[in-house]
Amino acid sequence: MAAFPDNFLWGAATAAWQVEGAHDEDGKGLSIWDVFSHQPGTTYQDTNGDVAVDHYHRFREDIALMAEMGLQSYRFSISWPRLLPAGRGEVNEAGVAFYSDLIDALLANNIEPMITLYHWDLPQALQDEGGWESRATATAFVEYARLCYARYGDRVKRWATFNETIVFIGHGYITGSHPPSVNNTARAIQACHHVFVAHALAVQAFRNTDIQGEIGFVNVLQPHTPLTQSAEDIAATELADAIHTHWFYDPILKGAYPEELLEQTQRLWGVPQCEPGDMALLRDNRCDFIGLNYYRRETVAANPGETSTQANHSGERQSAGEFGFKGLFKFVRNPQGVYTDWDWEIWPQGLTDGIMMIKARYGDIPIYITENGLGAKDPIVDGEVVDDPRIDYLRMHIDALENAIAMGADVRGYYPWSFIDLLSWLNGYKKQYGFVYVDHTQNLARKRKKSYYWYQNVIASHGEQR
């Protein structure tokens, strides 16, 4: 049997705020990231998405590079405030036209679009009304989703509702490093519930269209390994699994919260507060596939000490402390691990193990690897971007993906992060992920990296040459 199914898609991914720029052009409303990133000290070197890499004006150039590479699918997100500047109500037709032109250009180059409806850029107008803590935001999201289905559903067959809820809720409402910069666990849990409700409502609306396609949800895949085999470290790892994985997958794929954890959150904080019918809504509107974003595993230890949520945003190794919560768990450095400059462990086996973990818990749900990549400081040698570490990283993870498929996992596509060097939310432009380099000193000129040509061969050989 072939290692990769005949219909397996080789793609790449980006997100609107990180590439588009044009943050206030052609009627677009402000997003929470447009506002947040203009506050001093919130991002590395005070970078913002006003211009980003100017994909809004240069998307045809970028799609030509995708086509030359042989890309079969492109995962991108739509900017909600570009379509609905106030989050609901009046439609910005110029914004609708931008994505319509983007989709047409992709299809003209035989590149299948995969749309993510929400990749963190909530309209600021909705945040001013309460954001995800307000039930009304879920209702507004469905209005936005229906607009996208109506305008693009004739051409787009693959959809995802949300990207990485654990990140935009966790950092937005617990660590406070993302907008709306809240530090309150109870508010985080309630906001998260409204996201799940919004997802289920959007799936329900999708099923009421005549779109011949599929709709899913994109989650972080982060396996956890205990530092030692002590009872304390094993218990801490199980708790990390419950909080970081099961809480974010179970409502989407099972239609219910993890029972023991739900009992604890209800006892401690009285959340999530559910309206009648919420759990039936989740149960009856489970998605067609799950998107997995895999970058690393975490080694877990018991944490009798203090809570610390400092992260490495500079790319200077070990510049941040251990991440963890007092009395629960902490993420520690694996003494045998290999780490990036941003202290993310490189562990390809985790992709195989994580996929099989999802299969074991949730059954034969179709899977797309919607993100996987190396954030690095790429060297330029004699004018060439020589990103050999990225090639090595991706090669090892494609090997791991092949192993999961051989073990029976239904994996249907691979979308490395990212197609082009883009604005990292809190890391500026120092952290590079792309196959295409962007020269910020030369009018954002695009340049193919060494990995670009490598992935071109991977795609052309359907994964055999790597």
UniProtKB/TrEMBL annotation:
GO terms for biological process: carbohydrate catabolic process. Signal peptide: none annotated. GO terms for molecular function: beta-glucosidase activity. It is an enzyme of class 3 (hydrolase). SUPFAM superfamilies: (Trans)glycosidases (SSF51445). Transmembrane segments: none annotated. Keywords: Glycosidase, Hydrolase. Its EC number is 3.2.1.21. GO terms for cellular component: cytosol. Pfam families: Glyco_hydro_1. The active site is at E371 (nucleophile). Belongs to the glycosyl hydrolase 1 family. This is beta-glucosidase.
